[in-house]
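Hi all, long-time lurker, first post. I run a small reading group and we've been trying to get comfortable going from sequence to structure in the token notation. Rather than ask abstract questions, I figured I'd post a concrete chain and ask someone more experienced to write out its structure so we can walk through it together at our next meeting. Sequence below, copied exactly:
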Amino acid sequence: MQLIQQASSYAASVDGLILLITVMVGFWFILANVVFFGLIWKFRAKPGVKSRYITGSEPHLKRWITIPHALVLVCDVVIIVGAMRVWYNIKQRLPAGDATVRVIGQQWAWVFQHPGADGRLDTPDDILTTDDLYVENGKTYHFQLQSRDVIHDFSVPVFRLKQDAIPGRTITGWFRPTRAGTFDIQCAEICGIGHGVMAGRIHVQDQAQYAAWVADHSPASAQ
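-- Answer (accepted) --
Happy to help. Here is the structure in token form:
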């Protein structure tokens, strides 16, 4: 059971990587402490037993270093390979998108530019909202992330999505929602005195709901 539900196509991959790291690091942490305190107990001061000076260069003692060291390196390789696969899938690979939205961070709000009925940005039927992003469940979205002032961070915890917004740059990323509902959007970078109130919501709707929302909010419907 996840503490935060998974609502994107790659959320499980991120959680799986974190679980892998937790299990491997936790195993070595527990084992190292069991050995450490076990040796302290075994070689504790005893009446009539003199202490011995050892250099640590003895072969039977060096094995306590070399063997665990080699096993830790193997675990490191497994973690690095897993991390690179997840990173490539989320950050380096850009799958074909069904639609593109523009996400603009500013002190201290999110502005979202949605495509209208024509499905394209920067046309007369674009829909602008503040702090509320509307998307269709099951579709792959590209996002164009921008900042109007300082560094912000576009974070959707249920998507396991987190990306800095940098002034003067447009950063392209992607997500595919897999669960309908309304979820939190956060700014995960301290961006000024109003950082704590820079929250938004992403509304993941089914096809009929999203089509109705676009029809109700298009500029033509407001005339």
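A couple of things your group might point at:
The chain has two domains: 11-92, 99-222.
The mean pLDDT is 92.
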